[in-house]
Amino acid sequence: MVTALVLFAQVILAQSGIKGVVKDTEMSEDMIGATVMVEGTTNGIATDADGKFKLDIAPGPYVIDISYVGYVSQRVDVTIEEGKYFDMGVIKLTSSDIVLGGILIVADRATERQTPVAFSNVEKKQIQEQLGSRDIPMVMNVTPSVYATQQGGGSGDARINVRGFNQANVAVMINGVPVNDMENGWVYWSNWDGLGDATNSIQMQRGLSAVNLATPSIGGTMNIITNPAEQKGGFQYKQEFGSGNYIKSSLFGHSGLVDGKWAVSAGGVRKVGEGVIDKTWTDAWAYYFGAAYNINTKNRLELYATGAPQRHGQNLYKQNIAAYGHEFAKSIDGYDHNALSAFPEAQSGRLYNENWNEVTNKYEGQQYWNSSSKDRYSPHYINERENFYHKPLVNLNWYSELSNNVSLFTTAYYSGGKGGGSGTLGSLKWDRTGPSQIVDWNATLDNNMQTDTAFGILRNSVNNQNTLGLISKLKWKVNEKVNVSFGIDGRTATIDHYREVRDLLGGKYYVSDDNEFDSPGQYNKVLGDKVYYNFTNTVNWMGGYGQIEYRTGFLSIYGMAGYSTINYGYTNHFKKAEGSDAELTAKTGAIGGYQIKGGANYNLSETVNVFVNGGYVSKVPIFDAVINDRDGTVDADRENEKFTSAELGMQYKTINNKFTVNGNFYYTMWQDRSRSVGIRLQDGSEGNIFLTGMDQSHMGFEIEGAWRPVDVLRFDFGGSIANWEHTNDVTGQYKNYDSDGVEEEVPYTYYVKGLKIGDAPQTQLALGLSVYPAKEFRIQLVGRYYANHYANWDPFSRTAEGDTEQSWKTPSYTVFDLHADYSLPLQGDVDINIFFHVFNLFDEIYISDASDNSRYNSYQLRDANDDKYIVNPHSADAAEVFLGVPQVFNFGFVINY
Questions:
Q1: If 0-12 CB within 10 Å is exposed, 13-18 middle and 19+ buried, where does residue 573 land?
Q2: Among candidates 403, 408, 502, 505, which has minimal Cα distance to 450?
Q3: 195 contacts 480 by C-beta, under 8 angstroms
């Protein structure tokens, strides 16, 4: 007893010891409840809610052991002096592959000075500082070779393009789970509305990437990571306001780590607004749930669930430039002023949207969607195009250390989907007095009300889907330098496609004989009845890979090979099989594809590293390229598209991290891009054949970096210069049969050699200036410059020998965004941050999206045979465009507790 009192008195009088902060290496988060022990004693302490610790110890030399469940412990030698606390600074613990490291391995996240690929990280802080009210892809615009636009301005209607590849060739993954459409590879960002509030970081790996799943990652891979559950308890409330009557409320709560075992986070988002572009309103909810449970030091479970049930008005159709403003059209080089008379200036100017019109008729008919009848969004107008969808994503992750050298990472997931989009069907009345035709709802209603039959209606194109998947990766540490991993990727999806009656527009029924199983008495369709088409597609996917890594202190080398097979199936519920009363079906055998890639990173010094990588991908064709879902025609001989890629890069970072710059060259060749052509078979039936041989090359230089000369000032920069073009004309011939069954050879040529790839700028530059005038106060100005943007065009349309002119090149432009935020100097556990964004600060009028030689909106005249022709092909007046969104603002506050 006396001895204990003496020791206690010594500690109190000494006022010496250790202090510091414990953080996670990957995410730099404070680690709550980490254990700090004096080795060989029982003297220790747990870190507090901020990851901090302060432990009283008598003077002398000690070994301090810092540990946390699921992390690699650290031992630090310290010598404590009389009357002083030894500051251990920030101690970072590395995951032992079963905590957050597990999700990073499942998602194949790249690591600086180790993974030999070009990548950019956008961390949570940057997302919060720059995203505002926009769709998630828009925050990636500051990274090299990435081009994201809001297209028509509808909520969730954004698109992203990487290195000249659209998002059908960009893999998007959420916590390691691929979310590209299983049929066509596309990504619908409205499905992930609200995810930005739960996102911890986004990593854009450009090129073939380090992802070893068989994903469409030719342009790049966008890895979105959310935390399964915050380690620190509390809540966050965020309130936003913005242009277009935008209001968004977000509430997230966190249990924090309980008993060192489990944690739960949950959140909800509500968003409404009338939209900036005409009638692009939004009515959306979103939810997020994350839970983590440490079974023991060797096993951990995580559960994620996220979704965003939403509906929004859309602006899907580009316009001739003159529709948005005659003065702007006249300012564009090469725009034929004679075209102005063909395209009257829209009353709403740059906010014009042809996908809606007013209703003055007192029509109160119901609209049907998502299995029930409802009032329409507005009694004063009707949207021709409305999107409604809910795509939940649920995944259960199990991370297990089977031994000291073997770990298993498994993710089982479910991705559903219910909803679709509206449009017209039948014969409607149109108003053609504006720059483009729009539905005259009043005239259509009057016409339908004259009889019981609705001649023209609103329909829904429905896409309901269910996907189950399993990803499992086994990692074996052979020795200190060699790691080997194997993995499987299995998915199965069922997708129902059909159209249904949405709005009878004053009629009592709509007559449809599209279903061959209907009797004449069943032709009259009412709300919710299926019309036009009704079929089910199935996709069964199985893949596997093997990878080996060699790593020393300065050298990292990896190589991997993967193989996957896909089976497609098709059942048409409206069509009968030939000579049968059964439903028309079609299926393919297993279609195989593979990928081989590898690379090396060499650290020349503590500040400089270089890397090189290369790969070859034989990509399985998408469903839509194999089975024609109109008639069930299967192309059994469809060739895989091939991608060859190589990359060389370098990174420099000063020891004090004040300056960093990354640069790289890349080259990608896309071979055997193909298209479907209808043919007549010998028996007189129709079929399809795919013509291959279309090749294109993508090459360029990318650079990005940051410089912080003083604490109150930071510069960020990123840019790319590229040359994307078709490498050769395509020639060949195929067999066809005339009406008498006589075989004939049909030659074809596509004149595309040297023509530039469209749809994204080939020159990009982004500059950011951040000023920190006071503690917790930041102002940032971001400028982006785009040039050499060729309008999107179809290379298979260039069949005329003399048609070798480049597609129209849009004017270059520069746009600025302003961001500011300030954390109030409050005491206690409550933090309040206020923020403000102005996007397109100087209200620049610019063209963000363009299509060449528009069928509907190019300047056309009629020839002697009364056939229409484009007056000035591949010119400004032959294009249809979306303008960039005008100046908009977003502001609000965040309360953290």
A1: middle
A2: 505
A3: no
Give the residue carrying structure tokens 């251990």: 88
Structural contact between residues 223 and 178, judged by C-beta atoms closer than 8 angstroms: no
Residue 629 CA, chain-centre distance (Å), reads 26
pLDDT tens sequence across 623-634: 888 888 888 888
Cα separation, 292 vs 301, in Å, equals 6
- Per the domain annotation, does 239 fall within a domain? no
| Nearest partner of 298 among 67, 34, 35, 70, judged by Cα | 70
- Partners of residue 9 on adjacent β-strands: none
State the pairing for strand pair 393-401/381-383. unpaired
Asked whether residue 269 is domain-assigned, the answer is no
Cβ distance 467 to 424 under 8 Å?
Answer: no
* Inter-residue contact 790 to 808 (CB < 8 Å): yes
Over residues 107-160, the pLDDT tens digits come to: 567 788 888 999 898 888 889 899 999 999 999 999 999 999 999 999 999 999
Domain count, the chain: 3
At a CB cut-off of 8 Å and minimum separation 6, what does 1 contact? none
Domain containing 15: what range? Answer: 2-93
Residues 785-795 have pLDDT tens digits of 999 999 999 99
Helix (H, G, I), strand (E, B) or coil at 427: coil
Looking at the fold, whether 50 and 165 belong to one and the same domain comes out as: no
Residues in the chain: 897
Q: What number of other Cβ atoms are within 10 A of residue 766's Cβ? A: 20
* CATH number of the domain enclosing 56: 2.60.40.1120
The H or E element that residue 446 is part of is helix 441-449
- CA–chain centroid gap for 324, Å, is 29
Same domain? 767 vs 678: yes
Closest CA to 894 of 265, 123, 126, 239: 239
Task: Answer yes or no: is 233 within a domain.
Answer: no
Helix (H) or strand (E) holding 311: strand 310-313
Residues 6+ apart with CB under 8 A from 123: 200, 201
* Domain boundary residue, one of 56, 73, 93: 93
Read off the tokens for 16.
Answer: 């010496």
**Contact yes or no for 796/748 (Cβ under 8 A):** no
Burial class (CB in 10 A: 0-12, 13-18, 19+), 254: buried
Predicted confidence band of residue 611 (pLDDT cuts 50, 70, 90): very high
Token couple for 320: 């001739």
Residue 498 phi, psi dihedral angles, 5° rounding: -160, 160
Rounded Cα distance between 702 and 715, Å, is: 17
Tokens of 502: 């949405």
Strands 430-431 and 438-439: antiparallel
User: In the numeric block, which tokens belong to residue 793?
Assistant: 């065009």
Is-contact 313 422, C-beta < 8 A? no
Q: Are residues 817 and 802 in the same domain?
A: yes
